[in-house]
Please model this.
Amino acid sequence: MQTKQTVNEGLKRAYLITITADEISAKIDAEIKKIAPQVKMPGFRPGKVPANLVKKMHGEQLHAQTLNDMIRESTDKVMKDEELRPAMQPAISLGEGYEQGKDAEVTLELEVLPVVETPSTDGLKLEKLVVPVSDEQIDEALQNIAGQNKSYKDAAKTKKAAEGNQLIIDFVGKLDGVEFEGGKAEDAALVIGSGAFIPGFEEQLVGVKTGDEKTITVTFPADYQAEHLAGKEATFDITVKAVKVETDTKVDEDFAKNLGLDSLDKLKEIIKGQLEQQTAGLTRTQMKRSLLDQLAAGHDFEVPATMVEAEFQQIWAQLQQEAAREEDPAEALKQIEDEKDDYKAIAERRVRLGLLLSEIGQANGVEVTGQEMQMLIQQAASQYRPEDRDRFVQYIQQEPMAAAQLRAPLYEDKVVDFLFDKAEVTTREVTIEELQAAIEAEEEAEAEKAKAPAKKKAPAKKAPAKKAAAKTDEVEVEAKPAAKKAPAKKAPAKKAAPKAEAAEKAPAKKAPAKKPAAKKPAAKK
Model:
């Protein structure tokens, strides 16, 4: 095998690999000797078929398989010998006009990851914007909880049910006079006007009184989960056992105890924690954007065009989907088309930040443990139907890129948390409006910085043979040897700073379909 480098420009590399006809022939002969003892042919004892006959029978198939193996082995050897870290899957092609008996000329083309000097983690300064929880917010949340846990008391037996009243009923559902499975219940609680039952069910019970018996006719929605009921007309024989009216729910110690808590103070403590958690995500987003801005400001290096294009395509696809949902899709599409170059610049910034985070993580020993990875796999598998979960786990175990893509968000979070710990952090209390405004301002500033003219880039160095895997809050960046591609993830996008994930595209193997929504009882939506 002979190798000649034909391109070495920036991050682009290309090689011409020549596999001689003698090498191919020798490999085929070796394969024939290996399989000959297992070949059966009329007139010959097992294992005694002459090699020339084996070659005549299986020559075409052996040649194709052997050549494919040799191409893979030779390209793998070049990647290892040259210590190449491919940014995306390399392009490998066999020269046109190749015929058996001739030398095979193979072209290997790829972009490599740049060598990124480990960014300094010293001198990072971050401001943490915190939204304090007020007593008024806690009281409002308490009232909302009380509203969701309404209590009812029996009304007079002469009371006619109206909207907002609760009925306690027995019912039996029938199709063509025959009771159907799942259409029967006793002591079922129904609040008229709640929309908990199928359309037309609750409305026909307005005016009933305790002790009434009534038969109603309803039609199940065409898209009803139970296929045998979808679009069908059914009757329900109903017995009204009680009509109840809402009572004032008093928020006190008894109310808290009815919710399973020790005291009202404990309930307030839990509510406060939940309210703080709601804004904690926004606070983290604000800090993370500020952190990434500081990292991006001090680093400007060439990034692989193939990775940038893949990231841009993710952004662009999301923007087009959002534009299609606007009132005037044509105008929305025109607007994003006018800003296409801006989004390409944002995609480049995303990739650069991903490589920076990757380098920081590797230099500082940040890693996702085997136990954490198993938890990620199990969490992802739970989104699939029970019968498909084992197949999904096997898919992740067999597809390195799919596993890396699943790992990437957690890896990024751990790198960011590492940097938060290293940074000098000051805290400032703000309102929720101020926090949201700060995030929007950072998004706009990020977009502007991405569009700014780039500084002169340093020439790319030859990369050492190590892998990189990181993901910014907007883009997943994977650096893996050529293999099978990983499934793309869904990612929302905003106009000023769209989010897009997954540098790799669809998987070579199909992942199992996610489980459908669970079916609800027949009498309900």
User: Anything to note?
Assistant: Confidence is low (pLDDT under 50) at residues 453-510, 515-525. The chain is about 40% helix and 20% strand. The first strand starts at residue 2 and ends at 9. Residues 32 and 58 are 9 Å apart (CA to CA).
